Amino acid sequence: MSTKPAKTSEQDEADNDAPAMPPGNWTNQPSMTDIGRMIAEGITEGFNKLQPKKVTFGEYQRRQPKKPVLLRPFTQNGYPVLLTQLSSEAIDMLNKVHRSGRYVNRKLEVIVRNADRDIADQSVELRYSNKTNEQRIDNAKHFGSLEDMLKKILIEQEALDLQEMDRQTRPASRVA
Length: 176
Fold this sequence. Notes:
- The structure is a single chain.
- The protein is α+β, with helices and mostly antiparallel strands.
- Helix content is about 45%, strand content about 10%.
- The protein has a domain at about 75-170.
- It has helices spanning about 10-15, 30-50, 55-65, 90-95, 135-140, 145-170, and strands spanning about 75, 80, 100-105, 110-115, 125-130.
- Strands 2-1-5-4-3 form a five-stranded mixed sheet, with helices on one face.
């Protein structure tokens, strides 16, 4: 049987892990629940600032840039191309295509059907060989995308238009 000596008040204070209260007036300090409530309010306020503003469908549509209209039907290797598959730049370039012919080292064939009629009655067909891997690799050397293809076609069409205008403005030479 062992008997423990009685603890003194100094030993009781030393055993207590809580830090001693500093001197001062502690009666006006917020309680732990008040501190928790303030932290929660700060967090929710921060989250509310980060959340995007709710937008109606009409406001959303007004913010979106207007997509240009394709003036005539367009097919690529016999398959119709939908407006949703085309970028705005591609639509603008397709609307400028006006001349049938072979372009990009005769790799691309452009057929403008009903070219003599109004643009609404016309259609544009773009053809190129892409059946085998070799043909697709060769095409990739000349053009990477539809936009790239159309840029090259328009550049060549402008050059042909300038040549034609030059021929028309030159006086005809007389053959004796």
